[in-house]
Amino acid sequence: MDFIITVISKILTISFLSAAVVQGMPLLFGALGELITEKVGNLNLGIPGIMYMGGIGGLTGAFLYERYASNQVVILGLICAVVMSMLFSLAGGLIYSVLTITFRTNQNVTGLALTIFGIGIGNFIGSSLSRLAGTASQITVYTTGKAFKTTIPVLSDIPVMGPLLFSYGFLTYTAIILTIITAFILSKTNIGLNLRAAGENPAAMDAAGINITKYKYAATLIGAVISGLGGLHFVMEYVGGTWQNNGFGDRGWLSVALVIFALWKPIRALWGSMIFGGLYILYSYMPISGEIQELFKMLPYVVTVIVLIISSIKKKKENQPPASLGIPYFREER
Amino acid sequence: MNTKDQVKVPFVRIVKRDDISIRKSFLIYFVAIIASLVLCGIILFVLTGSSPGNVYMTIVRGAFGSQRKIWVTVRETTLLLGVALALTPAYKMKFWNIGGEGQILVGGIATAAVMIYCGNIMPTWLLFVSMIAASSLAGLIWGIIPAIFKAKWKTNETLFTLMLNYIAIQLTSFFTIFWESVKGSGSIGIINSKTKAGWLSTSFMSGIIGNYNFVLNVMIIFILSILMFIYLKYTKHGFELSVVGESENTAEYVGINVKKVIIRTMALSGALCGFIGFLIVSGSSHTISISTAANRGFTAIIVAWLAKFNPIFMFLISLLLIFMQQGASQIASDYNLNESANDVITGIILFFTLASGFFTNFRLIFGHSRKEE
């Protein structure tokens, strides 16, 4: 009983709840990107790699700006970071879509190769960039990093509500707004209907004269860019503008897990990301020894497995993965 | 003829090939691999500023530069091949087992546990029997769980096995702290470093082929490849699982118990992955950590897929990947770059070979073609 009370008293604190939100945001970006991709029937297992690419892209952009721009304007460094991050993840998305959509390679295999590649790129640039640029030290872009951490003025000073709701950088709010927009587009617009149709029954959509390839490319690339922002959020807002090899860890896979947890629904992914964020850091709030903490870290995955099992046993139609998930579409194949 | 009357012809069309000669498909892959090696060479050459000849020489030196390096290359190649072999029956059945990583790790944990708790009390033969049994059983359990759910409720196996990897990784990091040699070090160090109990020892060959040999690993994987080839090609089990892979409905119709085949095949696949975990822990690293599986579970999926489940191709692709990885590591250390360069190189080679698979399955027709009836 004492144990439960200690745990609850530690969890129901502003510091834990806002830490859960911060941890959840990279996952939300990743999951949102993966969700959009999966809606058109592409299971992109390269998302973890793309998130590394997005992270290192942002860092590279900020680094180059801080190093070579003569007149430092913080907002420009920030824009450089965001644009470079998007370009890097777009490149990752392009590799995946050209291979799987045009060249019809197997999605799982291509995705895994992309993850190996993307994590390699991240770690490689991350630890070689400063050396290639001729400086000895670790790359750090604290000025730009600080800009990413800037919270909403005035509002964040309100007690309780401030730290809980307004103490985050702009990327956090971007993630939430993007989620709501995605949910709206998917369920209320024609584009969303077509997207979902491409994932459920591409042959029917093709017969209706809609260009499947176009939709698949668009969704996969947009998905990749959004996921990449998750890497950017982690590197800039969470870490504050520096690189640590494999520092992003398994968060990319956690994003893939979150899509399952969310049963392919954006709004569920939104609150799910905060639950996952909480589960991810729960161990450090527990009065337990080191090795048991490691067992606690598997919680998000265990929860995902349980959701996966329950949803497959219950077989509710609206909770299933897109019907053609993982299957490439080729008109001549019936 | 007026151009307006003509039917609009797309610039290029894609047509599925009925079938392709082995020579031609080999040629396509060969061109793709050469192209990827050239690209890798250019990248490394830009990064290091050294001459291309130098870069390629360094790669060769990294993989085959000394007796020790040759053995590392051989060991890594056979281990990767081993995992690819272990995954093959599942893929042939079109069961996407992405959980190789986790199945290797639980096999490794089981091996380490036997080494730690029984290393000094069991006779050598019993120790090895228990290690092999424990590691295979652990891998089997890890593989059979998603298979049961797939067979019974069609639970998506790709996502399920993927999640199990991370559960296995956390389990491993639990045990590395639980067994850690020095409190707070977070590593268990070399197991039985004094007694060498439970080490797959190859010192009996050291007089002939050097101290760093991994001859037993190589022999075991070699035998495994032959057995796997026979199993898939000439046994009833192998036939059944390939029918299930082609079409579950057909399998059902001809009276194959699909559920049983799925569970049985994944039990085999998982057990073999666990066994590879034993080979890694007992036969090479003599320790366990979360990097024990070292992405082999993922890379092997791509190897098995690219080789179309042919053991000889699997060996060649494994060798190519490991050769380039060892070479890239050498370049990284010579030129003071980060060794993740080898992941980038691996990725590039895989992209090229994957893309070339397209040209073996499809052909392009530009504009009008009379040949096309």
How many H/I helices of chain B? 14
The parts of chain A where pLDDT drops under 50 for at least 5 residues are none
The percent of residues in helical segments of chain A reads over 70%
Oligomeric nature of the chains: heterodimer
Using a beta-carbon cutoff below 8 angstroms, give the protein chain pair with the largest interface and the number of residues from each chain.
A-B, 57 and 54 residues
User: SSE order of chain A in H/E notation?
Assistant: HHHHHHHHHHHHHHH
The value of Rg of chain B in angstroms is 23 Å
Distance between the termini of chain A: 61 Å
What's the mean pLDDT score of chain B?
85
Q: Termini separation of chain B (Å)?
A: 22 Å
Main beta-sheet strand count, sense and barrel state of chain A: none
**In total, how many beta strands of chain B?**
2
Instruction: Provide the succession of SSEs of chain B.
Output: EHHHHHHHHHHHHHHE
Anisotropy-based shape of chain A = globular
Provide an overview of this structure:
The complex is a heterodimer of chains A (334) and B (373). Chain A is globular and about 55 Å long. With 334 residues, chain A is mostly helical. The N and C termini of chain A lie far apart (61 Å). The mean pLDDT of chain A is 87. Chain A has helices spanning 2-11, 14-39, 47-68, 74-102, 107-132, 142-149, 161-165, 170-188, 190-200, 202-207, 212-238, 251-261, 266-281, 290-296, 299-314. Chain B has 373 residues and is an all-alpha fold. Chain B has a domain at 78-289. Helix content of chain B is 70%, strand content 3%. Chain B contains 14 helices and two strands. Chain B has helices at residues 22-48, 52-64, 67-92, 100-118, 124-153, 157-178, 206-209, 215-234, 236-246, 248-253, 258-285, 296-306, 311-334, 341-361, and strands spanning 12-16, 362-366. Chain B has a two-stranded antiparallel sheet with strand order 1-2. In chain B, helix 3 (67-92) crosses helix 9, helix 4 (100-118) crosses helix 12 and helix 13 (311-334) packs antiparallel against helix 14. The radius of gyration of chain B is 23 Å and the shape is globular.
